[in-house]
Amino acid sequence: MEATTELRVFYTTSNNIPKLSASPPTTSPPALPCTLHYHAEGGANILFRLTSTTTLPSRLQNRLLRLRKNLPHTLPASDQLEAFTTTFLPLFPPTNIIHHDLIELDPTLPPLLNETLARIPRPQNRRDTFLPLHERHGVLVTDMSPRGDEVLIQLKPKWLAQSPDAPPGSRRCRTCALRAQRAARGVRTATDAQAVCPLALVSESVEARRRAVAGVTGDERARAYLVGEAQVLLRSLRRWQVEFDARGVLNTFDGEGVRELCKAMTLRDCTLFVRCERDGGVEARVGDLDLKAPGRMAKWRGVEEGLGREGWYWGGEVEGGGDEERVCLLALER
């Protein structure tokens, strides 16, 4: 990686709390010089990799530094961690979840990182987003990057159960209905491109699951895992999606109901990381579990109302002239 994409930092601990600084603090023992490398980014966060010419402390090994973007819907890192620890961490086995640990940031670090972000190659649709200057914490997350010839699959399971707001007799699930609506409008996301029905991923039919995972990956080990062993994890994810949203977006108005719905919507937008390892083993972890904000309720209601009003659940669209449904399990089983 070119030098301009890197930033030299210093790692210390204070009262057992890890900290990154832009200049070497006067501490004992001495701070560890490290280098931050831009790794990747999504809509809400930017990931950096930490390296050192010496062995990294155990706290930094197999970890990426995740920093939130300066956007209205992103919570401070300390709030994110609290929501993750109290809400999502208890839902899954420790071996099946991306772990989070708080790390302190020196006040001089965010401005320097923003300078680095301004001059490095980034996705075109992300180049105008930067880090908040007032943020004093980041999160160390489990690094699921493939090593050597390992294979990493990133899957968005989406809505593993039908939306409570879907009309009876629907021919599409919530995810497939939204995909069809977007296709009619000339919009196609990375998840849409996989053309996978979430209901098929957790179907009782092994053949339906095989067809679904064929759209996710060509790796035979990953396919076998998703069809078989991963079902325990995927069905647990489905269970919590349903439990946190019993009434649907269009019928949830009270404060407690909205808070529960935000949990469900977070789980409907999480990522399943599946890493096929050199020894033949498979490691799978659920990540991207930043609690959704109640401020998104208006958007969620608008999407649900549009899907119903325009007929996308039925497969007989009022407008847009969508193609015959060939992906959704609900249509294929009729």
From TrEMBL:
InterPro entries xref list: Ins_P5_2-kin
What EC number(s) does this enzyme carry?
A: 2.7.1.158
Enzyme class, top EC level, equals transferase
Q: Name one GO biological process term.
A: inositol phosphate biosynthetic process
Q: Which reaction does it catalyse?
A: 1D-myo-inositol 1,3,4,5,6-pentakisphosphate + ATP = 1D-myo-inositol hexakisphosphate + ADP + H(+)
Task: Give any GO molecular function from the UniProt entry.
Answer: inositol-1,3,4,5,6-pentakisphosphate 2-kinase activity
Keywords linked to the UniProt accession: ATP-binding, Kinase, Nucleotide-binding, Transferase
Q: Which terms in the GO cellular component ontology are assigned?
A: nucleus
The entry's free-text remark on domains says: The EXKPK motif is conserved in inositol-pentakisphosphate 2-kinases of both family 1 and 2.
Q: What does this protein do?
A: Has kinase activity and phosphorylates inositol-1,3,4,5,6-pentakisphosphate (Ins(1,3,4,5,6)P5) to produce 1,2,3,4,5,6-hexakisphosphate (InsP6), also known as phytate.
Q: Which family does it belong to?
A: Belongs to the IPK1 type 1 family.
Q: What is this protein called?
A: Inositol-pentakisphosphate 2-kinase
